[in-house]
Amino acid sequence: MKRVIVIPDSFKGTMSSSEVCRTMESAIHEINSAIEVITIPVADGGEGSVEAFLKALRGEKVYCKVTGPFFEEMEAVYGRLEQDTAVVEMAACSGLPLVEGREDPMLTTTYGVGELMLDAIEKGAKKLIVGLGGSCTNDGGVGAAAALGARFYNTKGETFIPTGGTLKDIVRIDIETCREKLKGIEIITMCDIDNPLYGKQGAAYIFGPQKGADEKMVEVLDNGLRHLQEVIQNALKIDVSVLKGAGAAGGMGAGMVAFLGSKLQMGIETVLDVVGFEELLEGTDLVFTGEGKIDAQSLSGKVVMGVAKRAKSKGVPVMVLVGAIGEGIEPIYDEGVTAIFSINRAPIPFEEARDQSVENLYFMMKNVMKVIER
Questions:
Q1: Which of 43, 58, 195, 335 is the right S-S partner for 52, CB 3.0 to 4.6 Å?
Q2: Which 8-state DSSP code applies to residue 344?
Q3: How far apart are CA 247 and CA 221, in angstroms?
């Protein structure tokens, strides 16, 4: 065996994707130091997405002053990759950790996200990858759109920058300037959830409480998103009420599509496209991937499935290392997965196993490699 690709998801609560990559690579080289190992940390759109892309593609960080969650000035970072591509994670300036102890989705904004995008465009980016996740906002992405030139008007005919609590005050939208600035710019939005914009499974009800919303506030926020959809429908003739993923990041999914002309895409599909996974598979003998737990939900298009399907098309076998193996996974073998191994060596509680995760992964990886290299 001459070359392998290591492309795991994070093991939630234990190891980041980058840590898993390092551990797997070390174990592989202990068994055979001559094997070429290509490591690709996986970004899911949330905090750490920029870092993952930069490690995978050796890009550079760009720092700039932007607007924070409560309209305060702050410094944030995005990534610049080759081929005029920039990676922006909304968590950099609208993330939940930035408002710890003072959470209020009625007041927080995504304006800074739009500023990061604008800075990247002004520095020559022709393609933007925007990661949704880990947000403290519920403004439907209007803040980001406003930073890029969109105008929102109230009943008095005045322009303003709406937040979650004032979406209800929007009566007219003008995105002409915004679309002009984005002419010739491709925008891909990484979105790994399919929640609708509003309703019991929507942005406010499902994610609002973790952002500081009480029961009454959730209702206000949900009504605001319903109103936003109506305004979008009337002004732009776009129906985001039926858009899967519209509720991602406080409705940012809807805003990315309606205002910025983006398309929503699963995080793993974005990663595979950007790193040129199909090309990397040429001459590759084996792919290693993994996640914290594999079960029936893994069949819905997460990392393991995304990797396996593309590897299968090239005839490359896929080995999966996981923390736990759940029920209903049998169909995954038809999608390109060759074998699945649990790294846990003893039936102990997760609270104990998590402290041994790196050691256990290393041990299992070495054993798998011993069988392969025999």
A1: 43
A2: -
A3: 12
Domains (range + CATH), the chain: 3-41+276-373 (3.40.50.10350), 49-267 (3.90.1510.10)
pTM, rounded to two decimals: 0.87
Structure tokens at 113: 């996200």
- Provide the token pair at 244: 């899967």
One-letter amino acid of 201: Q
For residues 142 and 254, what is the distance between their CA atoms, to the nearest angstrom?
10
Specify the amino acid at residue 39. Answer: T
Tell me the CA end-to-end span of the chain in Å, nearest whole number.
Answer: 11
In the block, tokens 């858009």 appear at 243
Residue 263 token pair: 């398309």
- CA nearest neighbour of 273 among 83, 134, 116: 83
Per-residue pLDDT tens digits of the chain, which is 374 residues long: 899 999 998 887 788 888 999 999 999 999 999 999 999 998 767 777 888 888 888 889 999 999 999 999 999 999 999 879 999 999 999 999 999 999 999 999 999 999 999 999 999 999 999 999 889 999 999 999 999 999 999 999 999 999 999 999 999 999 999 999 999 999 999 988 889 999 999 999 999 999 999 999 999 999 999 999 999 999 999 999 989 999 999 999 999 999 999 999 988 889 899 889 999 999 999 999 999 888 887 777 688 999 999 999 999 999 999 998 988 889 999 999 999 999 987 776 767 667 788 999 999 999 999 999 87
